[in-house]
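Side project, low priority. Logging it here so it doesn't get lost.
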Amino acid sequence: MQTLLLNLINSPKDLRKLSREQLPQLAKELRNFIIDIVATKEGHLGASLGVVELTIALHYYYHTPEDLLVWDVGHQGYGHKILTGRRANFHTNRKLSGISGFPKRDESEYDTFGVGHSSTSISAALGMAIASQLQGKLKRNHIAVIGDASIASGMAFEGLNHAGVTKANLLVILNDNAIGIDPSVGALKEYLLKSSVGKKLHQDNIFESLNFHYSGPIDGHDFEALFKAFANLEQVEGPKFLHVVTKKGKGLKQAEKDQVTYHAPGKFDKLTGELLKKEKSVYTKFQDVFGLTLLELAQKNDKIIGITPAMPTGSSLKYMMQAIPERAFDVGIAEQHAVTFSAGMATQGFTVFCTIYSTFLQRAYDQLIHDVALQNLPVIFCVDRAGLVGEDGSTHHGTFDIAYLRCIPNMIIACPSNEVDLRNLLYTASLGIDKPIAIRYPRGYGRIKSWQIPFEKVELGKSKYIVRGSTIAILAVGNCVEDAKNAILELEIKGKISIVDVGFVKPLDVVLMKEVIKEHTKIITLEDGCIKGGFADEFNTFALQHLYEGNIKNLGVPDEFVSHGSIEELKELVGISKEKIKIILKELL
């Protein structure tokens, strides 16, 4: 049996021992390897399949890790990981204690920069290039591979703008596949679509206007075209831009045809590409509760607007975009713009729902403060993927939103514990509010089968008892309410434990919290976010101010970045799982 070329490669040094004629066979093997693993272990598929030839060509032509290769959007990085010593343990990708799904500096010397959020590669590679100049390393190459719609982000243009007035040895490679997770949007996409392989962009194109030497577009699946371009560009001094056209999902027909689904398809048949059927859940994802409820509200209120930065499918804004496209906007990978665009519409009397992942809202922090809260504009932030998100790991966990929102004046922070609460909060916000509100909810399925019930208005800032007892009070935030309920059910302790559904971290329900500290000698705060700066700090300060003399135990995410793994594994790891809650309760009792 013939030995696979891929099995001979444990580093790019091994790769460079192959002849160029062997590279198409290696590309075929690498694609098959990625498909085989992702089909059973899950992960991001389409982006990595699209850059197989480019990945091989880069590590073959350049002398990594001496030459510095920076990937943009870690979804592209699977082939890179496999070729740089991680083939044998690639099956652990995104699993607890396994390798990360994204490039990570402490995992390999070939991972020059950690990437989970988009559009960082040009700035990082430029920083490396100028550092090399200062160190006299003038022969070192610095390559930023930016793709999956990331070039349209403002940060990418900030990097291009700076690089264009330097003499840095920087090569920016645009992996142009016209899609991120969802299809690309915006004028830049339309501009790039006017080009094709062998047909240059306008004579004075946008990248040349920024003082880059522009080459392309070339076929990103053609090794000879890639090597010829690399060789030509080595003769050029200063910043260079190579426009490469690829097909996301290449090598798997279904992934090429349905690029949105096969971005991260779950388990599938590696031979046919057909998705494996899952038993349909009787529950609904929080994202769909949001999307379907917003559509229902928008159909009755023509002042409602929906906005998302490049996440219409993930956030389920797609329902409104399909039904009422003139009032639902995907603004691309542009979180800062999304927030200020929302603020602008709010000044004109529209009821604006800006749906954005917790970990991506971090990228628009100044806009939250300066453009929304300072002006007290009633933008409704639907903070998706709040809390632990699972296998995407530390770059995507929404564990900081309570902490970074708490300190902003005028901001309401609502934490619905279930689908009905989320639905009613969306309804209440749609009726009109006088300040900004953040409604945070988790990734994945809820626990209520029949959530589409008549709307009820929520009283903002009110918490409520779920269970009332005498000794210990658990103050649970959002998704943690259910874990607290399950913990005391299994302990079969009646009358000793109270559970409070906090509901609102800000403003705090002062009346109910006074009752809690008066009636309980021991209190547990429970949240799926960071303890430092989170609800724990809010309540601890309140208890101190009111001279509480009892015992307070804070459960939440400790002061560290949480790794990747299943949500249940990570809850156990940080100490907020049902079993961990039971242990704490036993100790306190």
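Brief comment: The chain has three domains: 46-263, 287-440, 465-588.
Revisit when time allows.
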